[in-house]
Here is the input.
Amino acid sequence: MMPAITRIRSRTIVLPTRDIDTDQIIPARFLTTTVREGLGAYLFNDLRFNAKGQERPDFVLNQAAADGCEVLVAGNNFGCGSSREHAPWALLDYGIRAVISTEIADIFRNNSLKNGLIPIIVDVATHDFLLANPGVETDIDVAKSTLTLPDGTVVEFPIDDFARYCLVEGIDQLGYLQQQMDAIRTFEEKRPWTP
Here is the structure.
C-alpha cells in the first residue's frame, strides 16, 4: 500500500539539463539495498557533491530556494538509461513527488507510476515557461490529470487510467488484485475447467 495521491501543490525546482539518465539520478554504487528509505541522500550524488563529498553550491538542490519543493522540472528525455526502480525511490525519499518534462523515458515513467512519483509530460510552451521561471507555484490534480500554472492556465497531461486509479486509491498493482479476491474466488468456483 502507498498513500493516496490526489493533489500536489508545490513550488518547482528546475534542472534544465537534458538526457539525465538513471545513473545520474542514483549512481549504481548505491544500489546495494532493496529498502527505499535513505536513498534520497544519494539523489543526483555526482552532480550534488564534489569528489570530497562536499556540496556543489551551484547545483539546484543545494540552494535554499529548493527547500520544500516537491516538483522537479527537468530537461528533455529525463530518466533515460537502464531500468532502475531505485531512481523514483530516491526522488521520493528526497521529497520530490512529481517530475515535469516534455519527454520522460518510458521505463522510468512506468516505474514512477508504480511507486507513487507522478511523471508529467507537457507541451514545449509550458515546459519553456516552467524552465524560465524556477520556483513558481504549481497545482497538480492527479484525478483530473491537470497541471495548473500560477496565471490559472490549466494544462492536461497524459496518464494511464489504471495507474491514475491506483495512485488516487493509494494501492499498487498487488493491492488492486487483492481487492478483487471475492471475484477471483467466485470465478475459480464456477469455471468449468481445471488448470
Q: What stands out?
A: The longest helix spans residues 106-115. The radius of gyration is 19 Å. The helical segments are 22-25, 45-48, 86-94, 106-115, 124-132, 161-169, 173-179, 181-190. The domain at 7-190 is CATH 3.20.19.10 (Aconitase; domain 4).
